[in-house]
Amino acid sequence: MSTASVTAILVPILYLLSAALFIFGLKGLTRVRSARRGNQIAALAMLIAIIGTLLELGTIHWTYILAGLVIGSLIGTVAAIKVEMTGMPEMVALFNGSGGAASALVALSQIWDRVVEQETGGTVLAALGNAPGVTTVLAILIGTLTLSGSVVAYLKLAGKVKGQPILLPGRHLINAVLLLGSLLVGIWAVAQVTEPGMLEAVLLAVVAASFLLGIMLVIPIGGADMPVVISLLNSYSGVAAAMTGFVLENNVLIISGALVGASGLILTQIMCVAMNRTLANVLFGGFGAQETSTGGGGKDAYQNVRSFSAEEAALVLEAAESVIFVPGYGLAVAQAQHTVHELANVLEKRGAKVTYGIHPVAGRMPGHMNVLLAEADVPYEQLLEMEVINPEFKNTDVVIVVGANDVVNPAAEKEKGSPIYGMPVLEVWNAGTVIVVKRSLSSGFAGIKNELFEYDNTMMLFSDAKKAMQEILNEVKQL
Fold it and tell me: Which one from 300, 377, 397, 406 is the annotated catalytic residue?
């Protein structure tokens, strides 16, 4: 049997194995306990897909392949080592953008190779063979807007631009013109234009319009909605990859792209449900753009806030039979998860029941708190989702809120004029005592006052989360 025959048989088998492993890997990512194994399976699936692709290509310029492998590996390794968990949302945003850019560049490279360099003549559609022209345009359009949108999301998450929505007049009309114009002009270009020079100019215009569209789609979205935006951009990058799969006629790329696109969209919907908002409201609502009647959350807006010491908090914990920790972004920033777990262990040894209340949008990306606590070896069975933990608060002696704000705000249930009204939150105020560890009275991403801080059963500890938890831990040990 010839080498070509062996390759023709082996490549589909490798692609099928890769697709199956992608599915199993994605399944593993649905739970914290199996997430690491799922990630490893998905990585193996990608390696097999790459091997299959190289075999299918036959003639390969190994210099470029090895150069890309070395450079990409170095970038990924350095990023994985240096980026802290608090910077993971920004890193994920850049990953999404990189995926979108890769899809757009591959589609453009196919046009460049088969039309410009080979000078085949005729239209792009004819030069690309069986690849549909519309998928070529979609790969360029979606990939480019994913890149620019992800960059804006990164800048908002990193605090390099303000997190509040930027609402330009007529933005919906502008977005519609950019979207339809890019799509129609792009399809016309690949189907009708035969002159390479004109084709290049038109496609560059499509890229520019798509890049601007990505910016326009993300700047009206506030920082509070960034977890949803990250999920949606992840879905976009998957769809762009699937479209590129059609351009290359590569089945495994179509399958893997579709999996990423579908899973990203499902996660986006889960996040929207957790916030009791529709996707349309997130994308077009301009959440957080205007001040509301509930105030801006500054110190002057509060009346009866009482500050307590770590020693007083420890005295309350001494008598507690049940304690619930509610982690938030402040815990992530201070890297306080290990200290929290150590305090929890001490309380358990004293006979207290300890659990953790996890809100789906706590932190700045889906699953942020779960990963942080798992990193500190917190038992999985102690991490309880909102629907499970909420009924338990009324039977709990002490709740310790570490750096959370909007996800424990009573306004979501009690203030109809609040922008977060109707959003499911952790009902911590029903506990006997609520200890809130926070640097200041500054507002969360929603930009509104949190009346929990004024409640009679609330103890405010104004401090860095890690420092405060360490002080409480030291005091508890001395009791």
Answer: 406
